[in-house]
Amino acid sequence: MKKLYLLVVVLIVVPLLLAGCGGGSDKPGSGKLEIFSWWTAGGEADGLAEMFKIYSGKYPDVEVINATVAGGAGTNAKAVLATRMGADDPPDSFQVHAGHELIDSWVKADKMEPLTSIFKDNGWMDKYPQGVIDILSYNGEIWSVPVNIHRSNVLWYNTKVFADNGLTVPTSFDEFFDVANRLIAADITPLALGDNGIWAATHLFESVLLGTMGPEKYKGLWAGTTDWNGPEVKQALETMAKILGYVNRDHAALSWDQAAQYVADGAAAMTIMGDWAEGYFKSKNMTPNVEFGWTPSPATAGTFIMLSDSFGLPKNAKDRANALAWLTVCGSKEGQDAFNPKKGSIPARTDGDRALYDAYLQSAMDDFGSNAIVPSLAHGAAAAEGWVTAFNDAMTLFVTNLDVAAAQTAMAKACVDAGVCK
Ligand code: GAL
């Protein structure tokens, strides 16, 4: 009798209890899936929805929870995530930038599960560029699944505004200021900036740094081999101060997509933003090379500031099996070819179907294959989160006081505090 009772407990009660624990099953297909990101704007939200569509097609009985926290570059989301991770209440999977953000913030803190086996089991090891695998790796394991490659150093412009005013697309800082002066004379805001949360100013400045010193010295900034107290950083800050004289006055109140909308409306002529702006323009039914055009940000042709969004598996995910199935969609060709054309990014995989990508994205694919690739600071690829925060703090002061010397000192100190500069 006792044995029979035990058998009942093992066969019936235990599975019931496990199921009640929120999908603790080791097979995907029931319960919930909570996906955490900051993708709420046009383009980025549309791309995410495409991946959810694929997931729900495969696992119709899973309730997908789209846990977004608005705020470009994860300004607000990252704080919410940190609180949840600290309270051992992780989402099932979350958006995280490949590189320092992933490794320094979460992997070294022992908060993630390794994902090398997903790559091996799905035959992905040779489907991703080695450079991408490298920035996802630490201690011999891969720690997240990349969904895309974004480019940071892009200048977007309103084609009609340029045509109406007889303007040529600028490729150097001199040409940029020449065009900007003509736009001022025509009463049009030259450059749209939406730097609430400050990151978009840092984003703009990383392009200015690259355009001022070129890729080798730019890379050296994050490796401690380019002097933060040197003449190029000073020159970049002076150029940045000058550029800030040509942006919309309400920049501190706007988000990146509101700034992009100024360009869409023709209220501003240009914006320097990552290619999620491409996804945004397309979500507003604009067509590349028709209503909007693009070029590398001034003096950065031939170089590509890259960043990559990825998804990871936190330890103690409540719906682990569903999360693994999600990561399999994220890393698949099908998932990436559905997500990226809307997102305004190119696939992280090398076998994306080029025909699905528009003229801008095809040019990004070509440039990613041929340009000098350097990492983005504003988006977690170049430096650890603490350094990015210190840098953003320096930018917050700089955009209001334009004090070049003070900003340079603060940036040099941030490198020392990060343990990278002496
Ligand atoms: C970046 C992210 C992009 C896009 C952008 C604006 O940090 O990598 O995918 O979401 O923020 O939200």
Compose a concise summary of this entry.
This protein has 422 residues and is α/β, with parallel strands linked by helices.
Describe the structure in your own words.
Helix content is 49%, strand content 14%. The protein has helices at 2-20, 44-58, 77-86, 100-107, 116-121, 130-135, 159-164, 173-185, 199-223, 231-244, 256-265, 276-283, 320-331, 333-343, 359-370, 385-401, 404-417; strands at 32-37, 63-68, 93-97, 137-138, 141-142, 145-146, 150-151, 154-158, 189-192, 268-272, 292-296, 303-307, 309-312, 372-375. A hairpin with a 2-residue loop joins strand 4 (137-138) and strand 5 (141-142). It is globular, with a radius of gyration of 23 Å. The protein is an alpha/beta fold. Beta-D-galactopyranose binds at residues 38-39, 44, 72-74, 97, 150, 256, 274, 276, 307, 309, 379.
Shape: globular
Rounded radius of gyration (Å): 23 Å
Low-pLDDT segments: 14-23
| Strand arrangement in the largest pleated sheet | 2-1-3-13-6
Number of helices: 17
Number-wise, the strands total 14
Could you tell me the strand content as a percent range? 5-15%
The small molecules bound here are: beta-D-galactopyranose
The largest β sheet comes out as: 5 strands, mixed
Give the overall pLDDT as a whole number: 95
Helix content: 40-55%
- What class do helices, strands and sheet pairing give? alpha/beta
CA-CA gap between termini: 74 Å
Characteristic key phrases:
422 residues; 5-stranded mixed beta sheet; 4-stranded mixed beta sheet; 14 strands; 14% strand; binds beta-D-galactopyranose
